[in-house]
Amino acid sequence: MDNLSPFIYWAQSSKNIFLKVDVRNVKEPQVNIEGRKITFFGEGEGARGLNKYEFAMDFYGDVSKDYTMKIHDSKVDFNLVKTEEGFWPRLISQPQKPAWLKIDFDKWQSEEDLNDEVRDIRDDYPDIYEKLQKEEQGYKKDFKKVFMICHNFFMYLGFFYILCVLGVRFLKEGPDSYSGTYDSVGFLMKLLHVLMSLEIIYPILGYSKGSPLINFMQIFGRCFVLFGMISPEPRMQIKPVVFYLFLVWSSVELVRYPYYITQLYKKENAWLTWLRYTVWIPLYPLGFLCEGIIVLRSIPYAEETKLFTLSLPNYYNFVFDYPTVLRIYMFVFVSSMYSMMSYMYKGRKARLGPHKKSKIQKIK
């Protein structure tokens, strides 16, 4: 019986070809690379269980014999070097690709990947990229795109409405409007953050790129302040800091969600990109400051009201002291603030750094 072909996922940069062979627990695979051809043979667990798997491919161009192979428990990774720099319109020499050869879309750089090693193929071969997506995912990708556009557009409208309400109330009442901020937009702010929590699982489901951990850190921090401190304490709801916090949060999202929509349409806008990676510089520290003030002000309220506190004796024989949790959260809050700022700085450097100048000038 002929040996089976494993599923292979590929991506490229201007200098390298990246292959991921979907075979688990491979022991000492046999690999040969000569000119434009690669052959692979190994025994492991693939789509057909424990079997012998092999494949042979003729590349679109020549590759060097110097390559890197990393054998993992769940896959085998190859990093091949092109003999001549440049992007290939396809991986193999023949137009018809085998069914077991797939596109590793996760390798293409996205807004959140920020990996300088892999360039975004959409900027070099946009038509080919669209064709590859339709070949691989058909209308499934279109459904995801429409769903994400609707999600981002709804979130944008929600935060835009909040900004309008805050602005109109301040123009009419001045600082006296601060005390009514939560009553006027608190419900919508909570609804938007419940929907925003979906953005933690979108990368896991393949609906968006990025790090679920970073999304979790940002969204959990906001929800903890909103649902754990502001919402259950009426005295906190009328504080001026709530007005400023809602103002900062909404201002950040007023740029972020339109930027995501343009990325889904693959329509780069230089000014929107600049805003996306610049407005956080003043707004993130202001937001962290407001959140920190709310946490500190909430500790005495929690001690007085025994909010969420569980004391002995009780049915569960368990003690939970919410003020102590808030004090511990302050230390975690500082470290997460540093992580978020570092992440955004890395993103700004990658998108607006010197190596991106020619791309932005082209857009203009």
List the helices and strands and how they pair.
Layout: E1 8-12, E2 16-21, E3 30-34, E4 37-46, E5 49-58, E6 63-71, E7 76-82, E8 101-103, H1 126-173, H2 181-196, H3 202-205, H4 212-230, H5 234-237, H6 240-264, H7 270-276, H8 280-305, H9 322-352, H10 357-363
Parallel strand pairs: 1-8
Antiparallel strand pairs: 1-2, 2-7, 3-4, 4-5, 6-7
Radius of gyration: 26 Å
Share in helix: 40-55%
The coarse overall form would be elongated
Mean pLDDT comes to 84
- Into which percentage range does the β-strand content fall? 15-25%
First-residue to last-residue Cα separation: 59 Å
Class from helix and strand fractions: alpha+beta
- Total number of beta strands: 8
Descriptive report:
- This protein has helices at residues 126-173, 181-196, 202-205, 212-230, 234-237, 240-264, 270-276, 280-305, 322-352, 357-363, and strands spanning 8-12, 16-21, 30-34, 37-46, 49-58, 63-71, 76-82, 101-103.
- With 364 residues, the protein is an alpha+beta fold.
- The strands form 2 sheets. It has a 5-stranded mixed beta sheet. A 3-stranded antiparallel beta sheet has the order 3-4-5, with no helix packed on it.
- A hairpin with a 2-residue loop joins strand 4 (37-46) and strand 5 (49-58).
- Helix 4 (212-230) crosses helix 9 (322-352).
- The longest helix is centred in the middle third of the chain and has 48 residues, at 126-173.
- It is elongated.
- The termini are far apart.
